Amino acid sequence: MNQDNSHQNFIKRNFVKVENEEITKILPSVAGNSDGTDKTYKVIEWYEFKDNKIYMPLLEIDESLIFSKRCYCGFCKSWINSRYKVYFIDQHLNTDNHNMNVQLREYQENDECGAGNANFVGINIILHILLEAKPISNVESRFFTCLCPNLPNRDALTKAILNLTGPFKEILKKVVSSMSTCYLCIDEWSDKMKRNFLGVTAHGIIENQNVKNVIYFRKINPMKVTGQFLQDIVKQILKEYNIENNFNGIISDNASNMISGFDNDFFKRRCCISHTLNLILKDIHDMFLNKINILDSVRARTKNSSLFAKTCEFMGSTISKLPSYSTTRWNSLHDLIHSFNMTNECIKTFYDQKKLDIPFDQTDEEFFQEFELLLKYFRDSIDMFESDKFGQICKAQFELKSLKESVLRFIKNSEFFKEHAKDIESSINQRLEMINESWGDEIYAAAFLHPNHIFSNILSENEQEKGINYLHHLLSELSDEEESNPFQGETSSQKEYLITHPIINEKVDELQVFLQQSPSKECNLLEYWNRHSEQFPKLSKIAIKILSIPTSSAGIERVFSIAKELLGNKQLRMNKELVEIRMLILGNQEIFEDFFKENLKIIVPQLCDENKSE
C-alpha cells in the first residue's frame, strides 16, 4: 500500500474495516480523492469511524491501494474532507445539520413507532423547527418533504402556530399564577438589523421547584420605551397572568428608563448584579482602549481569512478565528483576549506570510496574558450570578467582597495594571455601592439564610445588624398577620374550650434558633428550607421568598441568544404576533412539548392518522 505511515496509523487507530455486506451495498461504489479533479476511483473496501457511520474508502488508484482523504457520512449522505485528522471529522459530527440528520434517521428507525413512519418523523420535524428557532420555510425543504410528504406548507404551519397563541398563553397563565412568589426579569434587546425587542421572564417556586418562564416578548419602538411605558407593560402582565398578589419585584439592568419606571415601593426594582459587574469591565476596557485597539485591528485583518485558518490548522491550533465582543456583555472580551493568547504565534506567522508589520510586541503579549487572568475573576463571578440556581443571592456579598479583594491584590502586583489601581478600585467601589443601594438590607439578610454561616460571617458588624433587623421586621409582619386571624376553633365544642381555657403560646425566636445551629454543608437550599418548614414555619417562608430572587436578568438574554436565527435577516417579514408566539415557545420548551403532543389533531391533523402515527 503506497501511503504515508502516519496516514496508515491514523486509519488503524480510528477506523474498523466494514465486514457487513448489507452496509457496503448502500455505500457508493466509486469515490474521489480530493486531488483537485473530478476523477473517481473504484472503492475496494470501506472502514468505519468509531461506530459513527462515517466511512473512509480504500481506493484503487493507478494499480495502488490508497485511503481517500474524503469520508462518506451515512447519515448526511454526503462526503467530508477528513485530511487524515480526527479534528475535521469531529467538526462534521458536531454540526447542527449532522445532528439533525442523526435524529431524523433515529425517528425513522424507531421500532415503537414503526420503521419508516413518515408521520411520526413529520411531527418531530415541526418540533425541531419550532424548538430550534428555524425558519418556518424549512418545512418545505426537499429533504424534509422526502422524509414526510404530508408536511404542511409554510402558510398552513404559520396559521396553525398563530392559532396556538391563545390556548398556549392560557397554559402559561396557569403555571405562572401558581407560583408562591413571583419575580419578573425585564430587558431590552437590539438585533443586528437595529430592531428593538422587550422581553419578560417570570421566576418563582412551583411545587418545591425553582422555575422560569418567558411570558412576554414584543418588538418595540425604542423612542417610546419610557419609564411610564414600562410600568404600563408590567401592570398589564400582572393583570393578564393573575400574579398581582404574588408579585414581589423587578430585576433589570441599570438603564435610565428601568430606574425611573421601577425604583419605587410598588415595583421594588433590584439591579441585575451581572450587568453591574459588566459596567466595571466597561470602565477597565476604556482605561486600556489603546491596547484593545490592537486586537480589533488583528481581528479585522484575520476575519474570514482562509490563509489564517489554514495557518492555525497547520500549527495545531484549535482556534481559527478571533471572536468579536459585545459592548453590552463586556465579559465576552475575555473570549477575544483568550483567543489572541492561544493564537499569537499563528497571528505572527500570518502577518509574515502577508509581509505585514506585526502590530504588537513581546510586551503587548505579556499584557494580554495578564489581562486574561484579570478578566477571569469577573467572568467567573458573572457566570455565578447568571446561574438560575435557587439561592444565589445568599452568596452575593461573599462573592462581591472576595472579587474585590482578589482583583485589587492582582492589579497591585501587576506591572501593567498597578498604574491604574486607584481608578479600578474607584470603579469597583462605585459599582458595588450601586448594587447595595439597589438591593438594600435584603442582600445582607439573604446571607443569614444559608445553613453554612460562612456567608454571614464575612459581613461587617453594621451589615450583620442591618440583615438581622431586616429579617426580624419580616418575621414581625408575618406574626402580626397570624395574630390578626387567630385560630378560633372549627366546631362549637372547640370554640367553647378556647373561651374557657385560653392558650398562651410562647413566642419562639426562629431566627435566633436557626443561627445557633451548627453550620451545615447543605447544597440544595430549596430542599433544606422545605425540610425544615415545621421547625421554622415563619422563617422558612421568608427564606424561600428571598432566596428565590434571581440575581441577574440573564434568563431573558439567553432566550435572545437562542432567537438570533429566528429574528435574523432571513425572516425580516415575520409579523409581531408570530414573533411573540415563537418566542414564548422557545422560552417554555418543556411546557410546549407537552402542549403540542396533546393538541396534535388541531395543529397538524394531516399527521395524525391513527393507523400510522400511533
Please sum up the structure shown.
The chain has 614 residues and is an alpha+beta fold.
How does this structure look, described?
The protein is an alpha+beta fold and 614 residues long. Helices cover 53% and strands 12% of the residues. It has helices at 5-14, 21-26, 86-93, 96-108, 118-131, 142-147, 154-177, 227-240, 256-262, 273-287, 289-302, 306-314, 333-353, 362-385, 396-412, 421-439, 442-447, 454-457, 461-484, 492-500, 510-515, 525-531, 537-547, 554-562, 576-587, 589-598, 600-603, 610-613; strands at residues 15-17, 30-31, 41-49, 54-61, 64-67, 70-73, 78-81, 182-190, 196-206, 209-220, 247-252, 270-271. Strands 1, 2, 3, 4, 5, 6 and 7 form a seven-stranded antiparallel β-sheet that branches. Strands 10-9-8-11-12 form a five-stranded mixed β-sheet. A hairpin with a 2-residue loop joins β9 (196-206) and β10 (209-220). The two termini are 53 Å apart. The relative contact order is 0.10.
